[in-house]
Design goal:
mainly beta; 3-stranded mixed sheet; 10 strands; 5% helix
């Protein structure tokens, strides 16, 4: 399973120690950027017992969610699932998901040269 480190404190799913509280996230791509499409800005959602919406801030379902990946050109994408050992998501002051970024996104080389070098750094798990 891919370990997830999330630095996007404005997300409704963000929890202490840079963890993500949702059990599955999705990484999407726009141009040459990959972003967390599961991101939801906590200022745009009402939370709490007195509201009709779910209090996401108190419900952590997983500290390492499954990572679905729509970035078909990413080296770590295999059958729409991320197989990197870990991903990092950034997005200071993000208001919507496209303002976040998957820092682990690595465009696949057409000839896949350098594959051994990438494995040496332990970024990929089978």
């Amino acid at each position: 399973m891919t370990a997830t480190v999330c630095h996007v404190q404005s997300c409704i799913h963000h929890h202490s120690k840079e963890s993500c509280g949702v059990d599955q996230i999705s990484v999407a791509v726009q141009g040459s950027r990959a972003f967390c499409s599961t991101y939801r800005n906590h200022h745009l959602y009402k939370t709490g017992a007195d509201n009709d919406t779910l209090d996401m801030n108190t419900q952590i379902t997983s500290s390492n969610p499954e990572v679905g990946c729509q970035a078909a050109a990413c080296f770590y994408n295999q059958d729409m699932v991320c197989y990197a050992a870990a991903i990092e998501v950034f997005g200071d002051n993000a208001v919507d998901s496209t303002e976040t970024r998957c820092n682990t996104f690595l465009p696949r080389d057409e000839d896949d040269s350098g594959v051994e070098e990438r494995f040496e750094f332990g970024l990929h798990v089978d």
